[in-house]
Write a structure and sequence with these properties.
The protein is mainly alpha-helical and 494 residues long. It has a single domain, classed as Hydantoin permease. Helix content is 69%, strand content 1%. It has 22 helices and 2 strands. The radius of gyration is 23 Å and the shape is globular. The protein starts with 9 loop residues before the first helix and ends in an 11-residue tail after the last helix. This is Putative allantoin permease. It is found in: Membrane. One of its GO terms (cellular component) is plasma membrane.
Amino acid sequence: METQDYQVTHAEITKFRARGYTNEDILPKVSEKRNTGLMNYFTLWMGSVHNIPNYAAVGGFLVLGMSPINVMLALVVSALVVAVFMTMNGLAGSKYGIPFSMHLRSTYGNTGSKLPGFLRGGIAAIAWFGLQNYTGSQALLILIGKLWPGFLTIGDGATILGISIPGLIAFTVFWAANLLIGLGGGGILNKFTAILSPIIYLVFGGMTIWAIRVAGGIGNILAYDVAGATAGINPIVGYLMIIASVLAVWAAPGVSVADFTQNAKSSRDQILGQTGSFLVSYAVFAFASVVILIGGSINAGTTEWDVLNIINSWDSTPAIIISSLVLLMTTISTNATGNIIPAAYQLTALLPKHINYRKGVILASVISFLIMPWKLMENADSIYIFLNAIGALLGPVAGIMIAHYFFLNKQKIDLDQLYFDERDKSVNSIYRGTNMQAYIATFVGLVVSLIGQFIPALAFISNIAWLAGFATGFLVYWLLTKTANKDSVIGAIK
């Protein structure tokens, strides 16, 4: 993997500004602005692993019928796969200092990039931001209710727009906390994750020790027989399902990872930092999550996959408060890295003359409030279908981006042509227009990844939708570009 970085000059920046790129968030980063180092990347994703949905997912993995040790190993293997994906797709950002919107343009063309960019940053990110805020606010509501029981009776059961008054207050408070972290951008996020990471390991390390003790030893946990588990599942199938599920969690951040790697001091820093971050955090999470969930279940005498219920069963109020607060902070970290920051950058790319990063954060946050995510949660099936469709699309997009950057263009992007003057119709840029080969491959990948939803015999494909979509998009795009006239392929550097 080539890691020699391109140094963008101030003369180039001045030239690009003259061509209409006046928004700083769109421009490539010069060396003095690339200040995110190896340790920043090492801590970046650690706060995004120990969250409530991920613990629930591990419970689902155990129900597959795999042994606890196999679930742990599958999570670590998944982390390695995610690390390879994130570092490879992040290389364009770290090498050239460009954000996701321009990385996407280098693949799909300046016109063609708008639709996948909008689906990633304008729909998926904002919808997930609202839903994550609602999930976190429910945990906050439980915590406040434990400390102040009278809070839950405010309004005497009255509702506003379908949500209770205490629920609306908790949602607004948690939403505001996420908004403030988003406004701080990468700098505040780096500081936040640097402080949060050691606290996470202290708290979940303590919870792991507690779980081993109440379970009567690690042997009882590893030998635990999950009630209702699927019998006789093929271990290879189980591993693939877990890998695909973990990849799906990182599908959106992985596609837009250039928004984070554009600030890298070097490609080496982001590669080593992200790889270490995923391997260490998931190794700890794999062991801790399985031990805590099974240990908590043994202690309760019933299967319990909700980590909040396990925490709330404790006798120590201070321990409940500290652990719940850490879970809430990890949700904020996840929401910032995976949703609000990408949404803000993409809104900036779509409307660069009117929206900058801070305005993008505010706009995306307001929209996430106005869509009333608590109403979306009333119909779980429609939410699943909607978000699964968006996730299924991002697999092919990721496959096409990697195929284009590594195999078609050999890790080269012509910045002078990428930042062409769109106002001048006479300019002949290799990135102008729409890459139809990419669109065809995206559509085929989407059909393949969703086909199991409509043909029961192919249901397994939908269980590994991201992997199926990624592989299909990659292969179809590679074949189309190999057989097409190179002059007809957007961004094909000769």
